[in-house]
Structure formats: structure tokens, C-alpha cells
Amino acid sequence: PVTDGSRELHSLCAQLEFLLQFDLKEKRSLFGQRKDYWDFLCQGLARCRQEHEGVRFVTSLDKLKTPVGRGRAFLRYCLVHQQLAESLQLCLLDPENLCEWYYARSPFLSPQHRVEILGSLYELDSVTFHLAL
């Protein structure tokens, strides 16, 4: 199993975060706080489901104060529960929402890149992650 001490884990998480932040439009909350991929994921999942367990878990963690911290915790939660590909796929279903959050260079806006990314993430479902949440 992959644990917190794994170099590959840190590389994977850094790459996932880069991918989710690449060409992300700058958006701000009502109070001026910069929105990040966490906000994109929450909005995308809220449109598709009642409530995602990962979102509920992350929002219950009082220590997490920033969207980036919440996003990182969500990625870890999804890796442990083998839900990353499915969760991201749900967020990528709505083209209007994608265009609202990402500029044209984002790989999420390319159907071919989207398929490749999701295919790779679904392969991660066969990997066991034992991470501190």
C-alpha cells in the first residue's frame, strides 16, 4: 500500500494539484477570498449528487482554513476511498461549468485529454492508499 511516507504519493498529489489549478480562472468569494479547485469540485459535485462524503468529511475538519488545504484533504480522502476518478468525472460532465471555471488551455476542456486523465485516475482505483486523513 501507498503511505504518507511515499515519494510517489507526494509527486502524484503535486501533479494532481497542478492539473486542477492549470488555467483555472481567478474567482473570488463574496468576502474576497480567492477560490481554488476545491470550490470547483464542490460546485461540480453539488450539481450531480445529494452530498459527497468526501466534501462532508473535509468541511467537518476545523483545522483546514484555506481552499487549497481543503482541496488537498479531498484528494487524499478520494485516494483512500478509491473515489478520485469518479468524483472528478462527475465534475467534468457539465461543459458550461467547466468553461465557467477554466480557460481554454485547460486539459479538462479537451475531450481527448479528459478521457486520458480519467483513464489514468481510474487505474489508481487498483492501488491501496493508507493515508492519514
UniProtKB/TrEMBL annotation:
Broad class of the protein's primary localization: cytoplasm
GO molecular function, one term: zinc ion binding
Keywords in alphabetical order: Autophagy, Coiled coil, Cytoplasmic vesicle, Lysosome, Metal-binding, Zinc, Zinc-finger
RUN domain boundaries: 3-133
Function in brief: ARL8 effector that promotes the coupling of endolysosomes to dynein-dynactin for retrograde transport along microtubules. Acts by binding both GTP-bound ARL8 and dynein-dynactin. In nonneuronal cells, promotes concentration of endolysosomes in the juxtanuclear area. In hippocampal neurons, drives retrograde transport of endolysosomes from the axon to the soma. Positive regulator of macroautophagy in dendritic cells. Increases autophagic flux, probably by stimulating both autophagosome formation and facilitating tethering with lysosomes.
Localization annotation: Cytoplasmic vesicle, Autophagosome; Lysosome
UniProt entry tagged with the keyword Amino-acid biosynthesis: no
A single Gene Ontology CC term: autophagosome
Designated name of the protein: RUN and FYVE domain-containing protein 4
One GO BP: autophagy
InterPro entries: Run_dom, Run_dom_sf
One matching Pfam family: RUN
